[in-house]
């Protein structure tokens, strides 16, 4: 499709399975302490599963809220501007498993933070820091900010702006520069997560389900720049999720691992960051599905990091 538009043509079909009104979404986020952000690529993989119950159990065991930002929903759209039945069905299955699914408009996050901090100067400071911490210096977003003198001053220069519309204008503006195949979805997840980490709750868990290895550095910036040791972001690829489900939680057997790995690979090899018995640090290694399945289920010294 030529332009990314929210909502999709058949968005009403999701209405019984997601929470998407602004007031409710903000209230739930402010009370929750565990979040799973779904990236588009992992969602596209997981919808292929005939039995995704182990993933749902992993989420419910953590009492986590699933967050789908608007950009992820739009990236799922087909050429006719609608969501595929398999996407809707997967979200329905999550809902039926007892998982709360929020559809978060990125431009709501500044208003959400304003309920925690009375001063918009403080909120705008969080926005400025999130952009500086997360967005690479040489990127379409930075170029777009530079082309908007007021935006550049408010986000990249000023440290005490009280403009209530900075965040809203930023999020709405950058969504207009969306291009096919770019990393805007991952970048928006990273910025939103960075901002939600500013909610004054002592311990909060943030998980990002993503199979975009190129986004590892992007998401890693959040932890590197965040000084709160009680709040960290965990990047979980489908391969790492298989390892966690089998090794840590006993929720995934060999057959289920095979099905999940097949969703991301087909018949090709899968590259994972991992360690074996004598490795001192994680290394990238490529395995067939059968090899990786065997290592996850039977090699106790094998650890998948991403």
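-> sequence recovered:
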């Amino acid at each position: 499709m030529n332009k990314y538009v929210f909502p999709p043509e058949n968005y009403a079909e999701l209405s019984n399975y997601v929470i998407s009104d602004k007031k409710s979404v903000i209230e739930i986020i402010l009370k929750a302490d565990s979040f799973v952000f779904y990236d588009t690529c992992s969602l596209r993989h997981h919808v292929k599963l005939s039995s995704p119950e182990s993933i749902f159990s992993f989420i419910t065991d953590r009492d986590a809220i699933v967050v789908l930002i608007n950009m992820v929903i739009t990236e799922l759209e087909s050429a006719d501007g609608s969501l595929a039945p398999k996407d809707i069905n997967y979200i329905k299955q999550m809902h039926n498993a007892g998982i709360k699914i929020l559809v978060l408009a990125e431009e709501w996050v500044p208003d959400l933070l304003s309920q925690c901090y009375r001063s918009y100067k403080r909120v705008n400071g969080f926005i400025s820091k999130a952009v500086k911490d997360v967005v690479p210096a040489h990127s379409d977003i930075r170029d777009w900010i530079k082309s908007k003198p007021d935006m550049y001053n408010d986000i990249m220069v000023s440290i005490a702006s009280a403009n209530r519309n900075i965040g809203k204008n930023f999020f709405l503006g950058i969504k207009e520069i969306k291009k096919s195949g770019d990393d805007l979805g991952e970048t928006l997840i990273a910025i939103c997560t960075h901002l939600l980490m500013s909610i004054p709750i002592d311990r909060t868990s943030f998980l990002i389900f993503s199979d975009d290895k190129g986004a590892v550095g992007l998401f890693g910036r959040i932890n590197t720049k965040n000084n709160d040791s009680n709040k960290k972001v965990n990047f979980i690829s489908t391969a790492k999720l298989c390892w966690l489900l089998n090794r840590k939680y006993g929720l995934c057997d060999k057959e289920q691992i095979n099905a999940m790995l097949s969703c991301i690979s087909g018949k090709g090899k899968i590259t994972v960051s991992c360690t074996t018995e004598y490795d001192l640090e994680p290394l990238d290694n490529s395995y067939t599905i059968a090899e990786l399945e065997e290592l996850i289920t039977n090699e106790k010294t094998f650890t998948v990091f991403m």
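The chain has two domains: 1-236, 250-304.
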